[in-house]
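Project standup — Tuesday

K.O.: blocked on the structure for the chain from last sprint. Re-posting the sequence here as requested.
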Amino acid sequence: MRLFARRNLRLGDERAETFADITVKGDITYMKKIEAVIQPFKLEEVKEALKAIGIDGMTITEVRGHGRQKGHKEVYRGQEYNVDLLPKVKVELVVTDARAVESINALSAAARTGKIGDGKIFVYDVAEAIRIRNDDRGESAL
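H.V.: unblocked you, prediction finished:
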């Protein structure tokens, strides 16, 4: 059985342009990559919520950006400045398909303030995960 690692995974689709051709043995178990862009002050709450449901591995990145709120104006030494790229935190984690909804719900509840600028969550299919140290693959690499 062959998987074509693309943005939208399709099994057996010969028309798909591939950038990676992965051979899979046995049953296919998909994993999900969850990326959340959240307010920096909510990071500790999000980490605790994920830890409470047994999710320990994650990558945290400090990022800057804006969505609908479009930034704000600040005054410094009498000059008004437009701050259009606001500090945010990106949380990335890869979980099994079975844990995806639980993880998204915990992350969303912990990051929510109910105000504009709370952030976004993006979910992607992951075809394969490989632990470099010992070549574990799939769910066992998580």
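K.O.: great, moving the ticket to review. Strands lie at 2-4, 21-23, 31-38, 59-65, 72-76, 79-83, 86-96, 119-126. The domain at 31-126 is CATH 3.30.70.120 (Alpha-Beta Plaits).
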